């Protein structure tokens, strides 16, 4: 499988609980291109249940949207410069400044979740990403993210 966007994060920035490869207890979310959009797949472990065992905890859903959205923002910004993540030159890094999540229906446990990102708009320093999290082809949560380019 192609490398994921997160595989190109510098070692020192790879400790995120949601997506850092250097966090042994983390989720290791992996985001990739899906045409002009982005996609990640994730199967939650049973301990991430919500109020009932067969529904996923909302905090995990927000976390997946957060990590996928921030990685997608970086990828969209690279493509806008006709580059790919990991290409030569200074990496373009984004952090989440704002994330809105709408929980539309309970997210079932035991089913691979599909997280998608779509570029809404971009300016010099900000990227707005529309997000969805689906199970069995049904959107269970949607989100809107503002990611801001990280200056350090
Ligand atoms: C800071 C945490 C660092 C952690 C990550 C480290 C490095 C990142 C590097 C690479 C990425 C690689 C790995 C990342 C791993 C996981 C990522 C997963 C996603 C996350 O989990 S990431 C953690 C949660 N995330 C934060 O921990 C951010 C805390 N925060 C800040 O560090 C600052 O807040 C920052 C940098 C966002 C901006 O600060 P700043 O001083 O550089 O710039 P400024 O405030 O001027 O904002 C510039 C323009 O954005 C507008 N703006 C800002 N915030 C807004 C909001 N909430 N709503 C609407 N507009 C907003 C302003 O209004 C202005 O707009 P305008 O230019 O038009 O006036």
TrEMBL record:
Membrane topology: Peripheral membrane protein
Assigned EC number: 3.1.2.2
Major site of localization recorded for this protein: membrane
Catalytic activity entry: (9Z)-octadecenoyl-CoA + H2O = (9Z)-octadecenoate + CoA + H(+); (5Z,8Z,11Z,14Z)-eicosatetraenoyl-CoA + H2O = (5Z,8Z,11Z,14Z)-eicosatetraenoate + CoA + H(+); hexadecanoyl-CoA + H2O = hexadecanoate + CoA + H(+); tetradecanoyl-CoA + H2O = tetradecanoate + CoA + H(+)
Protein known as: Acyl-coenzyme A thioesterase THEM4
GO CC terms of this entry: cytoplasm; membrane
InterPro entries named among the record's database cross-references: HotDog_dom_sf, THEM4/THEM5_acyl-CoA_thioest, Thioestr_dom
Entry annotated with the keyword Hydrolase: yes
Organism in which the protein naturally occurs: Thauera linaloolentis (strain DSM 12138 / JCM 21573 / CCUG 41526 / CIP 105981 / IAM 15112 / NBRC 102519 / 47Lol)
């Amino acid at each position: 499988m192609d490398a994921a966007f997160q595989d190109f994060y510098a070692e020192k920035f790879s400790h995120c609980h949601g997506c850092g490869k250097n966090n042994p207890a983390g989720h290791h979310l992996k985001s990739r291109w899906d045409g002009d959009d982005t996609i990640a797949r994730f199967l939650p472990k049973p301990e991430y249940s919500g109020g009932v065992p067969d529904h996923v905890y909302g905090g995990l859903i927000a976390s997946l949207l957060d990590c996928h959205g921030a990685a997608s923002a970086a990828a969209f910004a690279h493509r806008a410069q006709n580059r790919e993540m990991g290409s030569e030159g200074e990496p373009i890094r984004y952090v989440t400044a704002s994330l809105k999540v709408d929980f539309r229906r309970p997210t079932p446990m035991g089913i691979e979740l599909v997280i998608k990102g779509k570029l809404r708009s971009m300016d010099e320093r900000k990227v707005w990403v529309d997000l969805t999290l689906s199970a069995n082809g049904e959107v269970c949560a949607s989100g809107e993210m503002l990611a801001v380019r990280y200056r350090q």
